[in-house]
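Quick illustration for those who missed Monday's session on complexes.
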Amino acid sequence: MSEIIVALDVPDRERALRLVERLGDTADFYKVGLQLYTAWGPDAVRELRGLGKRVFLDLKLHDIPNTVAEAVRSARELGVELLTVHAAGGRAMLGSAAAAAAERGGTRLLAVTVLTSMDSSELGRTWGRDGLSVEEEVVRLGRMAVEAGLDGLVASGEEAPRLRREFGPRMLIVTPGIRLAGGGHHDQLRVLTPGEAVARGADHLVVGRAVTSAPDPVEALRQVRREAGAA
Ligand code: C5P
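Prediction with cytidine-5'-monophosphate bound:
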């Protein structure tokens, strides 16, 4: 059964708590990302935990191995259940992060491979190599993360089937870019419905504006759950 993660992409505590109060336990997890974490700080996680909510902290950590390992320990102490790191931080960083998470369990680490905002030419410019295939880079970086002991990957619905084939059923795949049929795309280039994402191998779905900008967010979230459950 896939779990539904609602992205709290709002600028401040008041708006975040208003959403959480409205959506309540219809969401399995709440995602705190860079915007809200920078504005509200670790109290964002503490308050959500205090309300009994499960937290996905999407900070996409990328630094030297020791610094990332310490950040993983801090997140674990806050009660974060899902935490992201950049696979491009390298094998040593990924290994240190995985070891820090494993010291006491409770926090599952997800790797971000290639940002969905990057296409092949941007990827080539960034790495100084022309002709890189985004899909092959996603698989290469994903393999590095899985081999380093991470629990899963953040992956678009497009990438999910290949990653599921490459890495098997035990690896967690968390998929953003979800839209209800007939809803707008916002700034996402490629979107999938909840049912399509689950059919392509996603375990957990991240939904933001399809729910938070809906005229009736609770009903939109219920519809996401129904569609994901029916897939
Ligand atoms: O509003 P929307 O559903 O597009 O929000 C998607 C959420 O998932 C945002 O918090 C965004 O940062 C995150 N995300 C994404 N694509 C990725 C990784 C994360 O959209 N590749």
